[in-house]
Amino acid sequence: MTKPMKFNARVFDESFLNQCDARIAAFYQIWKSKCKDGVIPSRSDFDPINMVCFLPGITLVDVNSETKELTYRLVGTNEVAVRGKDPTGEAVKDNFHANSWDDAWGNYGHVINKKGVAYDDSNIPNSNGVIERDQTVFVPLSSDGEQVNIVMAYSIQQKMVR
User: Fold this and answer.
1) CA proximity to 111, closest of 5, 6, 12
2) Where are the beta strands (DSSP E) in 42-81?
3) What is the rounded CA–CA span in Å between residue 157 and residue 159?
4) Would you give the end-to-end CA distance of the chain in angstroms?
5) pLDDT tens, residue by residue, 1-17
6) Which of 39, 63, 120, 130 is 20 to 30 A from 111 in CA distance terms?
């Protein structure tokens, strides 16, 4: 087995913490606390019992190591409600919740290829066509400490103030 790779701090930009919702920052801090010795944590490092308040907004996406195709492994109840359907088991490319595939892939691609963190703050229509502010943080998970095999995202939505 190879020694787990430490992720590159230069692509690990935390400036989003100055503008994101406190819940996004709290989720991020939990993820960061699992990054022991700079090694990307694995899915098994997270116990859902300790993350109950975050579960409705969590999405887990499996990454195919050869093709980089993305598949929804788990989609939280808030995310299902915003989308108007549960895409669990389906391709992300066909079911993403973003303004465009380029926007969605920009976030996932950064996490997968750079082993970094992505933060997205966009105005996106929900399943009823109502535009909402959608804040999401995307973080890498790795079963071997080297290759990202799951992207974990946490999202919150806020009604737009008129």
Assistant:
1) 12
2) 58-63, 70-75
3) 7
4) 55
5) 344 444 444 346 788 89
6) 130
Q: What is the pLDDT of residue 104?
A: 93
Phi then psi for residue 43, to 5 deg, are: -55, -40
Q: How many helices (H) and strands (E) does the chain have?
A: 4, 5
What is the DSSP annotation of 85-126?
S--TTSBHHHH--SS-HHHHHHHHHHHHHH---EEEEEEEE-
Q: DSSP letter string over 23-81?
A: HHHHHHHHHHHT-GGGBPPPGGG--GGGGGGGGGGEEEEEE-TTT--EEEEEE-HHHHH
Question: Cα dist. 97→58, 88, 119, 125 in Å?
Answer: 13, 13, 14, 9
Listed residue (137, 143, 112) closest to 39, CA to CA:
143
Cα torsion 93, 69, 59, 16 to 10°: value is: -90
- DSSP β-bridge partners for residue 63: 70
Tokens standing for residue 14:
């935390």
What is the Cα–Cα distance from 25 to 121, expressed in whole angstroms? 13
